Amino acid sequence: MSSKQNQVDTEQATEQEQQTAGEAQGQDTIQPDAAYVAELEQKLADAENKARTEKDSALRAVAEMENIRRRAAQDVEKAQKFALEKFVGELLPVIDSLERAIEHTSDESDAFQAVHEGVELTLKSLLSAVEKFGVAQIDPKGQPFDPNKHQAMSMVESAEVAPNAVLAVMMKGYELNGRVLRPAMVMVAKGPAIDTQA
Q1: From the CB of residue 163, how many other CB atoms can be counted at a distance below 10 Å?
Q2: Could you tell me which residues are beta bridge partners of residue 155?
Q3: How far apart are CA 68 and CA 54, in angstroms?
Q4: Mind listing the pLDDT tens digit for each residue in 132-177?
Q5: If both were cysteines, with which of 123, 165, 168, 198 could 161 make a disulfide (CB 3.0 to 4.6 Å apart)?
Q6: Average pLDDT across the chain, whole number
Q7: Among candidates 136, 141, 143, 146, which has minimal Cα distance to 179?
Q8: Which residue in 140, 137, 184 sits closest to 165, CA to CA?
């Protein structure tokens, strides 16, 4: 019986030690070390600052990528719109020559009637072809002078039209998708001179 008693006593002693250790641990969690808490708070603040910095960097990178994508899309659109600019620039003298040929050949003369009609058809066909690709003529006769699309070659007094209106077009201008390739060369009206000797 003494061995059983010894065993029960040992178990009770072990339970009391465990209770005492648990109470000691409970006191440790209730009263943490202030230096350790301050260190943890500093680490938390540092981690939050680092997370904020990383978030800002990520947002900036996303914004920069969006800007690059938008710029690239604009460059592609411009390249598509104005890829023909040099080619059309080379065609303008051909169009001018055809227009001059029509002016200088008369369809009334039997000798030139066939030539006149042929040149006229060729010009219409060429203008139709370039219009499909966004080329438009600038023919401003009778319209107000626009320095963005017209180049004034001379100014002439005229009482027939309003001052600053285009009297005559010496050479038509052309634009490609709204961008002026060549301004129209025009003669602009100015008001009649006032007689100061009267």
Answers
A1: 15
A2: 188
A3: 21
A4: 988 999 998 889 999 999 999 988 888 777 888 898 899 999 998 8
A5: 165
A6: 83
A7: 136
A8: 140
- Tally of CB atoms within 10 A around 152: 15
Reading the block at residue 8, the tokens are 């029960």
What is the C-alpha to C-alpha distance for residues 183 and 175, in angstroms, rounded to an integer?
Answer: 8
User: Whole-model pTM?
Assistant: 0.58
Residues 41, 107: Cα–Cα separation, whole Å: 97
Nearest CA to 188 among 160, 168, 159? Answer: 168
**Can you tell me the distance from the alpha carbon of 156 to that of 144, in angstroms, rounded to the nearest whole number?**
14
Which contacts (CB < 8 Å, 24+ apart) does range 88-96 have?
88/130, 88/133, 88/135, 88/174, 88/176, 88/181, 89/181, 89/182, 91/126, 91/130, 92/174, 92/181, 92/182, 94/126, 95/123, 95/126, 95/127, 95/130, 95/174, 96/171, 96/172
